[in-house]
Amino acid sequence: DESRFQSGRALSSPPRVFLGAAANPFGEPRDFRVLRLAKKIAAGAQFIQTQYCYDIAQFKEYMRQVCEMGLHERAFILAGVGPLASARAAEWIRTHVPGIHIPDAIIARLRGAQKQKAEGQQICIELIQQLREIEGVAGVHVMAYRQEEAVAEIIDRSGVLAGRVPWYPSRDSNRNASRNPKSEPSLSEPRAIA
Questions:
Q1: Residue 182 above 70 pLDDT?
Q2: For the whole model, what pTM was predicted?
């Protein structure tokens, strides 16, 4: 490392990096999932984003093992969540995307709803509320495939903001231009979300 950009210009200060990794609590064989997580943290991961967590019971067991090993004290664990658009989409994901387990009860609930997309968003909100109660979970990572416009509302309705105002692109499009970098939290001292 010569502390230079590719153009040759010297870096005035080293970049601050917050290293992350992905984890799939539901992939097979499950017995090795926490050990794989431990290797990623030992390699330097400071935060972990998991695959979608629709099966709370299985995820609780995974997190129990994570906590037993003390991994939640060495890296922030962000549970992956996302709104399901329909029962049909949920069935397709469960069948075709390895490592994502969507319980029958969630699919049945979607199938019985008149407005499946809205129900999928409500399920996501409820999952966030359940996940935040699990020991070792530092936050959530909302993955809203083709429903990006719903993320701010999902987060707001889940209660994780505790009264703070969510960022809305249409309202806050110039927000980054007016930010004072000196008032930003340090990446070397990350904080868990409520």
A1: no
A2: 0.77
